[in-house]
Design brief:
The chain is mostly helical. The chain has helices at 3-13, 15-37, 48-55, 59-71, 90-109, 119-133, 137-153, 158-175, 181-200, 204-231; strands at residues 45-46, 75-78, 82-85. Strands 1-3-2 form a three-stranded antiparallel β-sheet. Helix 6 packs antiparallel against helix 7. The longest helix has 28 residues, at 204-231. The chain is globular.
Length: 234
């Protein structure tokens, strides 16, 4: 057998692994979305039997999905107890915001010359305004995340998008434990609009200034509310 045919045979042997990995990634996507939506709140134990049965996947596939989400810091494995949706510490929240400030402000700073592709930002602001009219505070929080994901996407970097997808998913874990989502999200809709308008006018420096202030104020508000809520947990 030639070296090339041997390599091909080895790759053929790996096809089953590729299939399992792809399925596990799809399962991880489903669970990540459910966690972000609050379907599985922080502290929830995830049952292999019930989730695997509902999704129609094997135990091995589900465990691989759990492993992927544990790597993303959304789940935690506790010895002899199982897998749980992670409960963040206040230090985690602070670190999330440090990461956001580093990445989001750098994205705005590096945008280049206007005009910028702002349709997704405008759409997220409109989404937030619609949620506000319906007093749907959970959807308003989702619109806020969509705004900042769209902001990061302006960098045109798949790696940055992937990094921040995990960061924003972690942030949603904190949001789910805050007991006043209106107070948490409503003040920032107008500030998203201001950032969008600054970018629309081509004022990158002003947009970065507004964004940095936004993130500082949001961290203070979220950390205070989150610490109060976590301290009340059993």
């Amino acid at each position: 057998m030639t070296e090339r045919s041997g390599q091909q045979a080895g790759l053929a042997d790996d096809r089953a692994l590729l299939g399992r990995t792809s399925t596990a990634e799809r399962v991880a996507d489903i669970l990540r979305s459910r966690i972000a939506e609050g379907y599985f709140p922080p502290g929830t134990r995830l049952s292999e039997d019930s989730i695997g049965g509902a999704l129609g996947v094997s135990r091995n596939t589900l465990r691989e999905a759990f492993r992927l989400l544990t790597h993303e810091r959304l789940l935690v494995h506790e010895l002899n107890r199982g897998v749980f949706v992670r409960v963040l510490t206040v230090e985690d929240v602070e670190d999330i915001y440090r990461t956001r400030a580093l990445v989001e402000c750098a994205v705005v700073r590096g945008l280049g010359e206007p005009p910028f592709a702002l349709d997704a930002l405008a759409g997220a602001v409109a989404e937030g305004q619609a949620a506000l009219r319906e007093s749907d505070w959970k959807s308003l929080g989702t619109a806020n995340i969509h705004f900042h994901r769209a902001l990061v996407a302006l960098a045109g970097s798949a790696r940055t998008d992937e990094l921040m997808r995990s960061v924003f998913a972690e942030l949603r874990l904190a949001f789910h434990l805050v007991d006043d989502p209106r107070a948490l999200h409503e003040p920032y809709l107008a500030r998203n609009h201001q950032i969008h308008q600054a970018l629309r006018a081509g004022e990158r420096a002003e947009a970065e200034r507004l964004l940095a202030e936004y993130l500082r104020d949001s961290l203070e508000r979220v950390a205070e509310a989150y610490e109060r809520r976590v301290s009340d947990m059993p």
